[in-house]
Amino acid sequence: MLQIGALKLKNRLIMAPMAGITNPPFRLIAKRLGAGLVVTEMVSAVGLSRGHEKTVRYLNGFPEEKPLSVQIFGADPQIMAMAAEIVVQKGADLVDINMGCPARKVVKNGSGGALLRNPTAVRDMVMAVRKACTVPLTVKIRAGWSPDDANFLEIAGIIEDCGADAVTIHPRFVKQGFSGQADWRIIREVKRNLSIPVIGNGDVFKPELALQMREETGCDGVMVGRGAMGNPWIFRQILDLEKGLEARPPDLSERKTVILEHFALLSRVIGENRASKMMRGLLLGYTKGLPHSSSFRGSFTGINDFNTMISALDNYFGTLSRDRGLRVDSERERPGVGEL
Questions:
Q1: pLDDT digit string (tens) for 259-268?
Q2: How many helices (H) and strands (E) does the chain have?
Q3: What is the DSSP letter of 336?
Q4: Are strands 137-142 and 68-73 parallel, antiparallel or unpaired?
């Protein structure tokens, strides 16, 4: 169990916020497969403060996702404080401040990772949001702006001093983006210097790496990002390893069922046509490493509704099951949320 402020999570695993990925359908799937906490996509504080419909829509979700963390970003402390009040009113169980995003359009406005270049701005930001936020508050940071400005201990100390309930550290520098390798020694240093929970993030692409991260760094929780794309089963596998069990990969039937459920949930949220287009990209992850996946991908462009999705999956998984002497039942009914 992991406790962040007054919030008690059922385990130490957190689904990282990822733009275009951690929408309500994916969060719900990750939660059902073992994530103790899921986080929204990064939400603009300015958009929330102005009541932009598209921005406010990021706060929508399924009741089964809870507890839910909402990650906000911005450069103005008072607008961030206002955004925190809004997301709490909308039902957020936890508020997370993004201070690590390396995207150019984010940092050019002084948000995300750009804040790490200005410790005073970090202090002002956390103090303002902490004062306005009535639920647990966390902050996600990186190691610093660049190797020449590796100020992660200073920043983490400021965050703790200003009343945040936990810190998540991705041990890459902002200028690195996602290149190179995450330096877990930085997570260990942060953990050694803070008394609040420290959540490690970065390069957990296999379930055994979550256990390795905790062993090497002593971190209180593990945040999984890209390692869960196309493989939400990683959370269940990590929990199995923690129990001393074998990490169970999904069989063909379960893999197919989750793909269909993901599509059904997306259709419910954004409509069948848009869901079809989004699933074309998601299928790359869901079928990565499977036999004949390259030939199956040729049929992605023809997927434009539930029936064509069914047909493509039936053909592909039928081929896989024949190769393995297995039977994968056809899923002709649209699965509902309760069947996930």
A1: 999 999 999 9
A2: 14, 11
A3: P
A4: unpaired
118 closest CA partner among 137, 93, 99: 99
> CATH topology for 2-242?
TIM Barrel (3.20.20)
Q: DSSP code of 12?
A: S
- φ and ψ at 147, to 5 degrees? -60, -25
pLDDT of 206 higher than 50: yes
CB atoms within 10 A of CB 273: 11
Token code pair at residue 10: 């059922």
Please report where in the chains the tokens 């983490």 appear, as a residue: 156
Which is it for strands 7-9 and 13-15: parallel, antiparallel or unpaired?
unpaired
Cβ(153)–Cβ(193) below 8 Å: yes
Residues with active-site annotation? 101
- Cα–Cα distance measured from residue 239 to residue 242, given in angstroms and rounded to the nearest whole number: 5
pLDDT bracket for residue 303 (50, 70, 90): confident
Cα–Cα distance for residue pair 160/312, rounded to 1 Å: 51
SS3 148: helix
Q: Parse the chain into domains and list their residue ranges.
A: 2-242, 252-339
> How do beta strands 37-39 and 7-9 pair?
unpaired
- What pLDDT is attached to residue 122? 98
Which two tokens mark 1? 């169990």
Contacts of range 147-153, beta carbons closer than 8 Å, 24 or more positions apart: 147/173, 149/116, 149/117, 150/186, 151/116, 151/119, 152/186, 152/189, 152/190, 153/189, 153/190, 153/193
* Separation of first and last alpha carbons in the chain: 24
Tokens of 120: 């005073």
Q: Would the CA dihedral through 79, 84, 87, 89 be positive or negative?
A: negative
Pairwise CA distance, residues 74 & 124, whole Å: 12
Residue with tokens 């929990």: 239
- DSSP assignment string, 13-77: EEEPP-TTT-SHHHHHHHHHTT-SEEEPPPEEHHHHHTT-HHHHGGG---GGG-SEEEEEE-S-H
| Cα–Cα distance, 52 to 46 (Å, whole number) | 9
pTM of the full structure = 0.91
Measured distance CA(159)–CA(60) in Å, rounded: 28
Look-up: residue for tokens 């639920």? 135
